[in-house]
Amino acid sequence: MSLRAKLLEVAGALVSALRASRKTRLISGTALGLSLVAFGAAGVAPIAPDAADLPVTLIVEELPVPDLNTQIAALSPAVGQFVAEERVRPGDNLAALLERLGVNDPQAASFIRSDANARPLLGLRPGRRIQATVDGDGRLLSASTLVTENRDELKRLVIQRGTAGFVAKQMPFAADSRVEMRSGEIRSSLFAATDAAQVPDAVAMQLVEIFSSDIDFASDLRKGDRFQVVYETLWEDGEMVRSGRVLAAEFRNAGKTFQAVWFGRPEDSAKGGYYDLQGKALKKAFLKSPLPFSRVTSGFAMRVHPVSGQWKQHKGIDFAAPTGTPIRATGDGVIEFAGNAGGYGNMVVVRHGKSYSTAYAHMSRIAARRGGRVSQGEIIGYVGSTGWSTGPHLHYEFRINEIARDPNSIVVPQAVALAGAELQQFRRVAADMGHRFALMAGDSVQVAAR
């Protein structure tokens, strides 16, 4: 039924209703009027055609596409710089390193060689990472790497090209610090054991320094000796940058157990020392040996002198070592003599207070000056064969009131132990390290993150 027919049917129904009553006729009249209005609107409103009947017009328009050169030019700010990363290789020099980084920039090479802040890049250790940003012509725009200022501090070296030339800055580097725990057993040598336990050589050398007052690592080590060590490592982007300080260590040598825990002063944690678990300082007034690794060729005893052939008292200990091996002062003191002493060759004498002195003879080179102060472990010279000597070695004397004595027979004083509030703080640190020692007991190697 069409819309018009429906409207006529409704109007007819309304007219019939008007005949029913007066009241009804009034209402019906109103409804009839509204219906006529609707009918009129329907008569003038256009009826929308079916969408399927609408005409379809196809419009074709060509859009301009930039050529390849235009596109490359638009992308040039993004592709005009390249970032490269390389690791320093053994035997690398600056030219080889820059070449692998894609740098062809004589101005940059000259700056690195001449600038004090940039020059440490010349001495990077193998394995150290360096990042560089280079433009399309091989010019260095920036470079960044880590440099070691001393054993306990890393800095980030940043080199940048500006409008006025290059600028180099060394900024503090906040590395992620972790704590690692390792244990091992001596089967042939200390370094073979630390290598097997994946302990860095720098940590192994710290072990030697820590226990050098109690253990001569050249002659006292025995097969079956064991060690446990807790030490810091510094990390960047998930990769270890270097090892840090030994926090605690335990060494079992010839049936004796030696323990050490690092404790820094509350006012300055960078300054401190090593103590046993009871808070007694490990540092003694004198080291057991002036050379970390050597063998004794002649002790403190009567012997036939190798040059004169006379039977006489040997007033010191001879340590065989290659020429150039560093010689350490065995105790704090003042250089009393540094020069040539006839049959002793190049010799250094260190005065330790009123009663004690130590002498170091046959040096190839002296690294101390008379009147200067030295600290325990500081290098004062290098092994040689000067004077009455048949080969490179160190003649070491320990003197009390100017009389030579056997160093192995002397009981030397120890540093003062911790007490009071410092001892209470140390005990908390020692308890943690003692727990770590317990975790490592029984051939297990544990690694933990701080």
Report the structural category: alpha+beta
- What's the count of strands? 23
Number of helices: 8
Gyration radius, to the nearest Å? 44 Å
End-to-end distance = 87 Å
* Mean pLDDT level: 81
Broad CATH class of the largest domain: Alpha Beta
| Beta-strand residue percentage | 35-45%
Number of domains: 4
CATH architecture of the largest domain: Roll
Helix content: 10-25%
CATH topology of the largest domain: Nuclear Transport Factor 2, Chain: A
Shape: elongated
Topology:
Elements: H1 3-18, H2 22-44, H3 68-79, E1 81-87, H4 94-100, H5 106-114, E2 129-135, E3 140-150, E4 153-162, E5 165-172, E6 176-185, H6 190-196, H7 201-211, E7 226-236, E8 239-253, E9 256-265, E10 268-275, E11 295-298, E12 302-304, E13 311-313, E14 317-320, E15 326-328, E16 333-340, E17 346-352, E18 356-366, E19 373-374, E20 379-383, E21 393-400, E22 403-405, H8 420-440, E23 447-448
Helix pairs in contact: 1-2
Tag the structure with descriptive keywords.
10-stranded antiparallel beta sheet; 24% helix; Nuclear Transport Factor 2, Chain: A; 36% strand; 450 residues; 4 domains; disordered C terminus; alpha+beta
